[in-house]
Each structure stands twice: as C-alpha cells, then as structure tokens.
Design goal:
By secondary structure, this protein is an alpha/beta fold. Helices cover about 45% and strands about 15% of the residues. The strands form 3 sheets. The protein has a 5-stranded parallel sheet, with helices on one face. Strands 1-8-9 form a 3-stranded mixed sheet. A two-stranded antiparallel sheet has the order 4-5. Helix 6 crosses helix 7, helix 6 packs across helix 8 and helix 8 crosses helix 9.
Length: about 300
C-alpha cells in the first residue's frame, strides 16, 4: 500500500493538465492489465467485480467494459443490486449490508442460463419503493463477456459455483494520504468516506451527520461480508485518483468546519487533511473520469 504526501499533491496540482493525465493513466493501467488477462481466458466469460462502499466499483466496471470493447469483445454490465430481495416499508433493524439481501437462488439460476447463452428476463430493483420489477430480456452471445458488479459478487454463497467460469476483480482505494503539518496518515477507508460524503450530499439528499452516522455500520458490513472474500480475487485495482481529494474539498470542508469538535476524531482528521490540500475546480475533471461517479456530470456510465 502506497503513501502519498499532501505536499506532493499540492505541488503537482498547480499544473493541472499533466497532473490529471498522470493520475488517470495510472488508474487506467490497472484496468488495462486486468482486461488483457481476461481476454486471455475465453473459458471465463463472466467477470465478478466487487469492492466496499465508495470504492468506485461501478465506474471501474464501466471503464473495464470500455477497454474490453476496444479490444473487440462485446461486453455487458449487470448490477447485482437488481437481485435484492424487497424489504417492504419497514426496514428498521434490517442489516442492509448482509448478503441475505440478495436473492442468491435467482442470481445463480440466471447466471447458469447466461453461461449457456439462454435468454432470461433481468430483474430491476426499485429502491424508492423497495420492489423488484421485471426488466429487459437478455441473451449472451457465444463470445460475449458479462460483468456483474456488487458488494457480494465474490461471496460463493451468493455467486454460487462460478469459479471455473468467472474472473474475480476486487477494486478499492489502496493509497493513504499523509498530511504535512498535521502528521496524519489518512486510511483508504476515510478517502472512500470522502467520496460518500460528496455523493450523498449531491445525489442522495443525505446530510453530513447521516453519512457520518452510517459510517460504523458500513465499516462493519465490509469487515463481515466483503473483506473475507477479497482473497478470492485474481485482480486488485487501486481506484485512488491522486487529484480527487482536491476536488472534494469544497464539498466537504464547510460541513466539517460547521460540525466542529462534536463530530469526533474521524471528522477532525478529514478536516485537517482537507485544510492542507489545495482546492481543484470541477471543470478540470474529464467527463469520463471515475471522479465523476461521485461529483456527477460524467459520461462514463451512459
């Protein structure tokens, strides 16, 4: 796991265009390596992509899809969120991170048919109403690749017996930020928390306090349900984009300052790191960047 000093980021962000190019190419190189390995194994047409909350697994899945298409492979993406079991209106006390939320029987039945190139009807999960609806018909072509992305993708109790037919990919932030005057070294989970703060604020109508309150339960879910299966992955992609904390600063820092000491040590560490970082304007961020998964305005998942 690498450590990047805030000082080096501040130096490079003064010349944004080459810094962006370097950051994006570094991230893309891991995806290209993964794609090349996948295409060397035609007997494995399924790709299982997982990672914890805020890891960038959705954006990475789409970048991987684009690279595979450029290599000449028809590639599809199916979100495993659509296989969630409806919970009804009362979700108090429900472990929302549990693999039991996934309809494993349906998922396994449909992946078996996909491998045999049989037509299926995909489910579509309506989160607002906690209902599962009927989606589009889907049939894999003989040489097509199918990416399934979800937090429980590598859990064999969910994915079933796909070991001989699937490439397994784990994505997450694998980089730490080291402060200058503060001396703080920020754990990757807290960089992912930055991403969730921005996404929740801009697109999920969640307040700073709500995101912070959910942090412990999300972390608990990762330890129980995601990390134990990380070792099954054949590929590990670091999704950290070196300039991204500079972009998030304007969205997060005012809330952290307003919360003050009452928000605790975690928020204090984030605030001190962000205060040291130079800000970075959204306009510099390419529309195809993974950062757009969190700040919006991207073309990556169109």
């Amino acid at each position: 796991m690498r450590i990047i000093p805030v000082k080096s980021i501040n130096t490079r962000v003064k010349d944004p265009e080459p810094f962006i190019e370097f950051s994006e190419e570094e991230y893309l190189s891991g995806i290209i390596d993964c794609a090349l390995s996948i295409t060397s194994k035609p007997h494995k047409p399924i790709i299982l992509v997982t990672g914890p909350s805020g890891s960038g697994k959705t954006g990475t899945s789409h970048r991987l899809k684009n690279e595979l298409i450029q290599m000449g492979y028809i590639t599809h993406i199916i979100s495993m969120d659509n296989y969630f079991i409806p919970l009804g209106n009362d979700i108090d006390g429900v472990d929302l991170e549990s693999p039991e939320r996934v309809d494993a029987a349906l998922f396994q039945k449909q992946t078996e048919k996909i491998l045999r190139c049989e037509e299926i009807t995909l489910p579509v999960f309506d989160f607002a109403n906690q209902k599962r609806n009927t989606g589009m018909r889907f049939k894999r072509g003989e040489n097509d690749l199918v990416i399934f992305e979800g937090i429980h993708a590598l859990n064999p109790e969910v994915s079933g017996n796909l070991s001989d037919s699937a490439n397994k990919v784990y994505v997450s932030v694998r980089t730490r930020l080291k402060g200058n005057s503060s001396g703080i070294t920020l754990h990757p989970s807290k960089i992912r928390l930055m991403r969730r703060f921005v996404r929740d604020k801009l697109f999920r109508a969640r307040s700073f306090s709500q995101t912070m309150k959910n942090f412990d339960s999300v972390e608990r879910g990762e330890e129980l349900y995601i990390m134990p299966y990380k070792e099954h992955a054949e590929f590990d992609i670091d999704t950290f984009i070196p300039y991204e904390p500079c972009v998030y600063k304007k969205y997060i820092l005012p809330d952290l300052k307003a919360a003050g000491k009452l928000s605790g040590l975690l928020a204090s560490e984030l605030r001190m790191i962000l205060e040291e970082l130079e800000g970075f304007d959204d306009d510099f961020v390419p529309e195809w960047s993974l950062v757009r998964e969190f700040i919006g305005g991207g073309s990556l998942m169109e």
